[in-house]
Design goal:
It contains two helices and eight strands, in the order E-H-E-E-E-E-H-E-E-E. By secondary structure, it is an alpha/beta fold. It has a single domain, classed as 2,3-Dihydroxybiphenyl 1,2-Dioxygenase, domain 1. A four-stranded mixed beta sheet has the order 1-4-3-2, with helices on one face. A hairpin with a 2-residue loop joins strand 3 and strand 4. The longest helix has 11 residues. It is globular, with a radius of gyration of 15 Å. The model has no long low-confidence stretch (mean pLDDT 95).
Length: 121
């Protein structure tokens, strides 16, 4: 039986960890957490999102803008995030409506698709 979700991994190009930290830790305001010593040599970094982890790994050789694969962050104030990201120069994309949620999408600086989603009460 699957108990739950432990972590998700995204990738960024090799050597772009500082730009990744700027985006994920400074702009998205997520907290970096310590990687185990056994994995530090692989590059990348890990962040905490609520009670889950996102592992930002490094990988070259593919176009991240060509995939529908994405991560969705559940937020309490979608308008705040729209304004913050637009002020950072990030282009927002409309998302197909789904019942009981408001959402939008964008690409991170590395081409990964990201969704911000808010439950409508």
């Amino acid at each position: 039986m699957i108990k739950g979700l432990h972590h998700v991994q995204l990738t960024i190009p090799k050597g772009t960890e500082e730009a990744g930290r700027k985006f994920y830790c400074s702009i998205l305001q997520l907290q970096e957490i310590e990687k185990p010593d056994s994995l530090k040599g692989r590059g990348g970094f890990w962040i905490q999102v609520g009670d889950r982890e996102v592992h930002i790994g490094t990988e070259d050789g593919f176009d991240r803008t060509q995939t529908k694969a994405h991560i969705a962050y559940e937020v309490e104030d979608l308008t705040y995030w729209k304004n913050k990201l637009v002020n950072e120069g990030i282009q927002l994309m409309d998302a197909v409506p789904i019942p009981n949620f408001d959402r939008f999408e964008f690409r991170d600086p590395f081409g990964n698709r990201v969704e911000m989603i808010q439950h409508l009460k």
